[in-house]
Amino acid sequence: MSASREKQNRQAASRQADPKTAREAQQRKEEKRTNLLYGVIAAAVVIAAAASLVWRSNLIPKMTTAATIDGEKYTASEVSYYYQSAYRNFVTNSQYAYFLSYLGLNPGASLKSQEISAAAASMLGLNVPGLETPAEGEEEASPISTGITWHDYFLDQALDNMSVIQSVLKAAEAEGFEYPAGVQAQYDDNMASLKSTAAASGLSVGQYLSSTFGAGVTEKIYGEQLMRVLRYSAYVDAYQNGLTYSDSELEDAYGADRNSYDRVSYEVVTFSGAAESTTGEDGSTVEPTEQESVEALNAANEKANAVISGFHDGKSLEALAGEYEGTYSKNENGTYSAGSALSEWLYNHGQEDGDAAVVTDGTTLYAVVFHDRFRDETPTIDIRHILVPLGSGSIAVGEEGYEDEQAQLKADAHAKAEELLAQWQSGEATEASFAALAMKESTDGSKYDGGLYTEVYQGQMVTEFNDWCFDASRQPGDTGVVDTQYGSHVMYFSGVNMSRWQSQVAAVLRSEAYTAWEDGLTENVTVQRMESGLKFIG
Predict the structure, then answer these.
(1) Is the dihedral of CA 232, 237, 238, 242 positive or negative?
(2) Torsion angle of alpha carbons 23, 209, 533, 35, nearest 10°?
(3) In whole angstroms, how far apart are CA 101 and each of 50, 114, 488?
(4) pLDDT tens-digit map of 21-46
(5) Torsion angle (degrees, nearest 10) of CA 31, 32, 38, 42
(6) pLDDT digits 0-9 by tens, 284-299
(7) Rg (CA), the chain
(8) Coil, strand or helix: which one is 245?
(9) Relative to the CA of 150, which of 120, 165, 354, 464 has its CA 20 to 30 Å away?
C-alpha cells in the first residue's frame, strides 16, 4: 500500500465517534440469569428480549473477533471503523457521481450485492485471472465475472491498512519513539469536532458513530483507533522526514530519469484535424465519411506546415496563429507527459533553441518551436504560519452592504493576526515559540506541525503568500502579516531549502524508500479472518 493512500485513509478515519461500557454488558448478563428463574416459557420470552437488547446495543460486534493480525485480536466494530474509513475515503476522493457510475459502484445499494466489473477491476489494479488486455488483432474477450464484490474490496483495504498500522506502531514502540505534541492536539480537536457535528445532526455521539461507521463503533472504540491512526501518521512522517540524500545521490537519481524532472520552454500553435459531424434532415447526427476525415486532417496539416514555414521566414508564431486560425500558447515551464507525441518531440530528440516542426498526435497537429530544456534550480523554502480565517458574514453576495461587511471581516482578521504577532514578539520570539503559538491559535492543518511547510516551491502557494516567501530580500527569522483570500497569515520565514529539482528527486527517493520499508514490515504479517465476526461488517 502506498504512503499517499495511507495518508488519505488516516485523514478520512478522523471524522466521527460512541460509547457503551463493559459494565452495561455485565448488567445485561446478570438480568438474563435472574430472568431464567421464571420458568421455561417465561425464560424463553426473557431470553429473546435480552438478545434483542444486546443486538440493539451493538454488544455482539463490539465483542466478537472479526480478525487477528499476527495474533492480535480485532473485533467486528474495530474492523468496521477501518472498513467504513476506506469506503468513505474512496467515495469522497471519487467526488463525482459519474466516476462512481463508471466504476459500477452504487453508494445507495448494499456493497455485498455489487460485483466489481472487469473494467473497474483493471482500473483498480486488482489481480483477476482473465483480465489480460488482448493483443493487437485479437478479439476482445467476453465479459468475465471477477467474483469480487465492492464489500470484498473495502474489507481487503481495511485489513491491509490495519496490518500496516499495527506493524508501524510496533516499530515505533521498539524504537522508543516519542510522539510529538501535535498528535494529542489533533486527537483533542477531532474528538471535539465529532461531538459538535453529532449535536448539530441532532444525534448522540453513539448514534452518529453507528450511522457512520456501523454497528458497535463507540466513542471509546473510535477514540482508540483514531489515536492509533494519528500515532501511525506521526511516525511515518518522522521516518520519511529523516531520510536525507547527498548531492551525488540526487544527481544520480536525476540522471537516471531526466525526463521526469526537466522542464522545457516552447511555443506552439495547435490545430484540430478532426472532421466535424453534421446534422441530417431528420435531426440525427451524421458522422463524417472517411474521405471527409482525411481531407480535414490534410487541411490542418497544410496550415501547421504554413505556420512553420512562416516562422522560418521570421514571422512570430503568435501572429501566424491568428493568420491560420490556430490556437497559440507559450509554455515557459513545461513538463514531460509519457505517451504525448508533443512531449516526445520536445524531450527525446536533442532539440536546440529555434528548432521547429509539425507534430501529429491523432487528429491534433502542433506547429511547435523549441526554446530550452532545463532543470528547475530555484530554491525551495521552509515557512511557518498561523492562519486567522475570515469570519462568517451575514449578508449574501450582491446584497446591499456585502462589500462593507467583507472589508470589515478582512480588517478584523488582519487585526487579530497583528495581535498574535505582537504576542509572539513580546515573549521568547524564537521559532520554537512561534511553533507553539501556531499549534494553539492557527486554523490551518499545518498547526499540528507548528504551522510548518517545508520545501515550498515558487508558485505553490496563493499569490500574496508566495510573493512574501520568495521576496529576494527575505532572511531567516523574518516575520510579517500577509492577507489572502483565506484570511490573514502570521508569517515566520524558517529559511531556504534545496532546489526545486532536488526536492522533486528527494521526494521520489523518500517514497520509494518508505514503500520498501513498509513492505519489509508487513512481508510476513499473518491475517486471519473470522467469519463469525466479519458478518457484522458492511
Answers:
(1) positive
(2) 40
(3) 43, 12, 41
(4) 333 333 333 333 333 233 323 333 33
(5) 120
(6) 888 899 999 999 999 9
(7) 30
(8) coil
(9) 165
